[in-house]
Design a protein that fits this description.
binds adenosine-5'-triphosphate; 4-stranded antiparallel beta sheet; binds magnesium ion; globular
Length: 240
Amino acid sequence: RVENLKKYYKGGTIKALDNISINVDEGEVVVIIGPSGSGKSTLLRSLNLLEIPTEGNIFVDDVLITDPKTDINKHRQKMGMVFQHFNLFPNMNILKNLTIAPTRLLGKSKDEATEYAMELLEKVGLADRAAAYPSQLSGGQKQRIAIVRALCMNPKIMLFDEPTSALDPEMVGEVLDVMKELASQGMSMVVVTHEMGFAREVADKVVFMDAGQLIEQGTPEQIFEHPQSERLKTFLDKVI
Ligand code: ATP
Ligand code: MG
């Protein structure tokens, strides 16, 4: 739950987030859309405190994570994050990429972490690439691995920042399919994307941002078929 979140840069001359409040219920998929520079990434990065908000509250499971006294590392572990660029460790093979955090941070044994990683790799059709290095995989494969790596930490919520924007068009589908599967299994997700088809099909709620403000939010039907504000109408005319 995000309450009145503000993030200012340069002494307040840039209002990247200007009083944002949103709710993500358990099992819900929230898709954030909006033009470049509207604050989508800043909002997503604020959710796990990669950005420190200027003002406002963020609660995860009723714990106020913006309270300086809260152990943020503990809460970060519950939030899986997938970026536009995959950020896999280039010097480790896929299996090592997947097991390093669960063994070091969750205290899992190597066998336990490996078994779980292989199970998830199986699900995304990449079990046969466990020994490969990131440079030997396609962009779509790397992004599916990045999703699996986040899932290996058993997150309560998954955050995606334009996970398909850097991919060749023919690889977008395979990544979106993994995300759809995750959503259908009841994972709570916040997804920044320009894939309006995904938003229509998978989102429970769509949030439209412009210039740091939350302009409209609603069901895909409300946002795409019955936009209220001129700003959303103009945006949709451009992207659809
Ligand atoms: P895009 O679709 O291009 O990824 P976005 O909606 O994710 O855009 P943000 O990256 O959140 O937008 O940026 C929101 C605003 O905050 C922009 O005006 C950006 O220039 C500004 N901004 C973001 N990070 C910083 C920073 N570290 N210092 C100063 N300004 C910043
Ligand atoms: Mg962004």
